[in-house]
Amino acid sequence: MHEFTAEVEALAAEILAYSLDRLKNDPPLDGPRTAEDLFNEVGNTITAKGLGGHDALEVFTSVLAKACISTDHPRNLAFIPSAPSEYANLFDLVVGASALYGGSWQEGAGAVFAENQALRWISDLAGLPESAGGVFVQGGTIGNLSALVVARAEAKKKYPEATRWVIACSEEAHSSIVSAANVMDVDVLKVPVDINGKLSGPAVATAIDELHATTTKRVFVVVATSGTTNLGIIDELKGVGKAAHDRDVWFHVDGAYGLAALCAPSVRSKFDGIEQADSFIVDPHKWLFAPFDACALIYREPELARVVHTQHASYLDTLKDGAWSPSDYAIQLTRRTRGLPFWFSLAAHGTDAYTEAMEHTLEIARAAAELVKAHPDLELVCEPELSIVAFIRKGWSASDYQNWSDTLLADQVGFIPPSAHHGQPILRFAIVNPWTKISDIELIMSRL
Ligand SMILES: *Cc1c(COP(=O)(O)O)cnc(C)c1O
Predict the structure, then answer these.
(1) What is the maximum alpha-carbon separation in the chain?
(2) Do the domain assignments include residue 92?
(3) Which residue range is the domain that position 123 belongs to?
């Protein structure tokens, strides 16, 4: 019944050879081209007769793949890049070849079991109780939204008199929080940060108390960021969590980038207070060496999420057997077992290897910060708390930054797009790749 012809076998060999080559070597950075330009080169690839596997692969490898920036290049320090381990990438091939369904325990028990052990590692690092649990969702945006929906459902039960629901977070919170607020049709209360850019307990307490005293609106969640995407700043989790709980408000921690460093002893104390979280997220596709797309969403009391997120339909009711079905814990139904590449790498390498790789990226970030300080024309924006090094190039206008960045990519040296802080252009190195060496940083800095 399986039509594994000689032609398919030959294609398999080609695809495996390409994949292996991609894993073995630093990829070129590459870069975008216009749709018009690409069309002129490859034309319409969707045809009645089909291109055949070999030719379709050729179109991809020789043209389309080269019009995509390699996010795992050691000198791609843009946004938050990615650095999947070889094991994680290899296992993604297994996931792709296996047609696994990750939505329900009934269909995917073995895979879900493995994903849950990987989630358990993260949950234990955070110090949540044994009963905590969650699910791998597509990204931090869906993870945050799913958690906030549960938080609001809890608040609705307890405070039916509230006229309008409000998310409290800092001005530095990720854009996905405002996006979630728009989807949920709730308000956002932006609490001012302290001199170090951090949300603090007293600031949260004052802002909530003022709102509750003067309006019939109610804050249903406090979102702390740990750390911020632009600068890696970690809010004061202890004080903020306490301020939220003292007011009977859900405490959510958005650690899409930074909470990966829970496994790094040198910075672990910065996350003290995370153990109070009612929910939190961390993206293994950012700084835990997993391929796109995987966000670990964890709840202190997963049962609260299950009640809110379980979908009901006659064809699904056979699945309501009391078993742990990942679909029930977020906004999703069908799901790929997206946590498995992360699980495999973690299981194969062991958690010590994660600690080592994490500490290594932190060391490179610290060394990069020292190089910035020693450079006569550069100035650190702040001491890096984690692995983001942000700095100013003295005397440059916004267009100087942009031109420098464009040339850096055009020359295939690195990808460092400018960002901004307090309205001023800055550059930032987001170091999440254990293959990024200090010589890579030096090479980039030699052009500043
Ligand atoms: C990246 C990021 C997000 C969004 O995560 P996606 O996986 O891109 O959806 C949310 N919050 C923070 C702090 C982030 O760094």
Answers:
(1) 74
(2) no
(3) 100-349
Condensed to tens digits (0 to 9), the pLDDT of residues 155-197 reads 999 999 999 999 999 999 999 999 999 999 999 999 999 999 9
* Residue whose pair of structure tokens reads 């009711």 in the numeric block: 317
- pLDDT of residue 93 exceeding 80: yes
- In this structure, the answer to whether residues 153 and 40 fall within a common structural domain is no
* Centre of ligand 1 from the C-alpha of residue 147, in Å: 14
Number of domains into which the chain is organized: 3
Distance 256 CA to ligand 1 centre (A): 5
**Residue 93 amino acid letter:** L
Rg, Å, the chain Cα set: 23
Q: What is the pLDDT of residues 318-355, one digit of tens each?
A: 877 789 999 999 999 999 999 999 999 999 999 999 99
Which helix (H) or strand (E) element contains residue 388?
Answer: strand 388-393
Please check whether residue 411 is in contact with residue 386, taking contact to mean a CB–CB distance below 8 angstroms: no
State pTM to two decimals: 0.98
How far, in Å, from the CA of 282 to the mean position of ligand 1?
8
Whether residues 341 and 357 share a domain: the answer is: no
What CATH number does the domain containing 411 carry?
Answer: 3.90.1150.170
| Mutation test residue for ligand 1: of 177, 283, 286, 342, the one with most atoms within 8 Å of CB | 283
Q: Which residues line ligand 1 (CB under 6 A)?
A: 80, 139-141, 174, 176, 225, 229, 254, 256-257, 283, 295
The pLDDT tens digits of the residues spanning 119-132 come to 999 999 999 999 99
